[in-house]
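Help needed: design a sequence for this.
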């Protein structure tokens, strides 16, 4: 038989096979015969498609989706992997990600953007994926350092006091903050809002000023009432407050913007005697988060939690990133494993250390490491600032928002922090559980999650090396490799399939295993 005859014969055979398949389909057989399944297996490649998104520090890639990686679903375990994911080892359940709607952010969105620009921005930030999928917010009770002016919700003329809070009002928030909150809630009805005061009204303080000083002890009960009225006032506008802190950065006394020192003893008294019982009687429920300050003083929240009256009302601890190390979160968590952990403030900026960008800093050192130290939610500082790092009255002159708004045109630019957060917020859905992920690849940092509902697995990896790094990943019987670009962040997502054993409960809730190290 010559070559032409051979080709003709195989063509005829192929035609017969094709006609047979068509006939079977036409007859609507309930299931294909064995030889049909064999042909299908040959024609369709096996394996799981791993979706990949990459950003690089040089900004040549910004959350750019890459071609899927074909993973082997039948790894026999003989080949070692850099990252090994164990879905049976579960830690905290994720609440979400977000930023602060400061007075400055609200003012810019309301006054420097057109209606269409405003709607487009808020949808991009708060809509579900493929938008940024933010579902957490922080707001200030009264002014913060990023407000156009200084105020509280019960300001009085010098020398006058208002112990019955008869002059309490939210008039200063009615023009920008409350309308923008309404816009966000229309997009994301379940957004979780954390409220923090920067200062008590001046007449309650030793300084008789919203700047500096501390709270006078005779006004502790009044201050607790002031905070509860704040929660109620926002609720009256249809704005539910998920959590409340007693004082922003209570161990710091700023000299150019509202603030006040508040000792651990004072915070414990306020929470245990006044604020906790008052909120416990209120519906809907608003929880109390302790501390709301930096990583470098874990003894401060531990001291308040050691007070049994205060501890019973504290749902978790809020942290800031400006000093210390995120391992402080784990120290407090080990002592009080049933208290939640949140990173409630961290800002990027145009300072010398950010000359080469802040993508890796935020993705690795802030978001990833706070999560690996038990954070359920991560909240950036300003949602929006303008090209001059404002507007603001005192405080930071170089801070950046998640996005920058051109105050003349309303056009936005997305900062490195936007992409650092997006690598998590777009893929790690509310209710996802952090799972164990070991790593032996030098220069690579990672954290892994399993999403609710579809059970998909999410791995975020940061390559801190200045050259490409080949990463190998194993989860159950699934294995894949990927060449991570130099100085990059990558998010990998794949369906669970049948690649792992059933997950163990881990803890009573099945949400986290507080007895095991992260």
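Sure. Designed sequence:
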């Amino acid at each position: 038989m010559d070559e032409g005859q051979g080709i003709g014969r195989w063509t005829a055979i192929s035609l017969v096979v094709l006609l047979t398949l068509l006939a079977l389909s036409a007859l609507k057989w309930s299931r294909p015969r064995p030889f049909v399944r064999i042909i299908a297996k040959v024609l369709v490649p096996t394996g799981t498609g791993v979706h990949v998104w990459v950003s690089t520090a040089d900004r040549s890639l910004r959350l750019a989706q890459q071609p899927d990686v074909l993973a082997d679903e039948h790894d026999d375990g003989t080949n070692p992997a850099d990252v090994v994911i164990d879905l049976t080892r579960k830690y905290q359940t994720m609440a979400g990600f977000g930023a602060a709607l400061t007075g400055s952010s609200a003012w810019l969105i309301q006054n420097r953007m057109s209606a269409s620009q405003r709607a487009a921005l808020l949808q991009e930030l708060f809509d579900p994926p493929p938008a940024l999928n933010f579902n957490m917010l922080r707001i200030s009770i009264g002014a913060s350092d990023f407000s156009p002016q200084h105020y509280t919700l019960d300001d009085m003329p010098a020398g006058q006091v208002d112990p019955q809070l008869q002059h309490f009002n939210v008039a200063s928030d009615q023009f920008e903050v409350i309308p923008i909150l309404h816009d966000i809630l229309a997009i994301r009805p379940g957004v979780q809002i954390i409220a923090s005061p920067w200062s008590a009204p001046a007449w309650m303080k030793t300084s008789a000023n919203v700047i500096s000083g501390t709270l006078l002890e005779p006004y502790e009960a009044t201050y607790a009432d002031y905070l509860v009225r704040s929660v109620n006032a926002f609720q009256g506008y249809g704005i539910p407050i998920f959590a409340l802190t007693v004082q922003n950065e209570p161990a710091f006394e700023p000299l150019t913007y509202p603030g006040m020192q508040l000792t651990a003893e004072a915070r414990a008294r306020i929470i245990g005697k006044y604020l906790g019982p008052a909120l416990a009687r209120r519906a809907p429920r608003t929880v109390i988060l302790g501390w709301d300050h930096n990583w470098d003083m874990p003894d401060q929240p531990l001291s308040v939690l050691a007070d049994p009256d205060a501890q019973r009302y504290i749902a978790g601890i809020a942290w800031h990133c400006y000093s210390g190390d995120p391992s402080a979160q784990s120290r407090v968590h080990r002592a009080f494993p049933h208290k939640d952990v949140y990173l409630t403030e961290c800002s990027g900026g145009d300072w010398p250390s950010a000359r080469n960008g802040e993508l890796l800093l935020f993705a690795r050192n802030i978001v990833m490491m706070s999560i690996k130290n038990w954070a359920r939610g991560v909240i950036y500082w300003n949602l929006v600032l303008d090209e001059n790092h404002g507007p603001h009255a005192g405080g930071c002159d170089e801070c950046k928002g998640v996005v920058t708004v051109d105050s003349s045109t309303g056009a936005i630019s997305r900062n490195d922090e936007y992409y650092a957060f997006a690598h998590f917020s777009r893929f790690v859905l509310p209710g996802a559980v952090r799972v164990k992920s070991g790593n032996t690849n030098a220069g690579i940092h990672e954290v892994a999650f399993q999403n609710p509902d579809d059970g998909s697995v999410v791995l975020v990896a940061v390559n801190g090396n200045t050259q490409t790094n080949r990463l190998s990943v194993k989860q159950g019987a699934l294995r894949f490799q990927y060449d991570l670009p130099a100085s990059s962040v990558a998010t990998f997502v794949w369906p669970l399939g049948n690649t792992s054993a059933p997950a163990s409960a881990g803890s009573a809730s099945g949400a986290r295993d507080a007895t095991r190290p992260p």
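The chain has three domains: 3-43, 48-92+433-494, 96-425.
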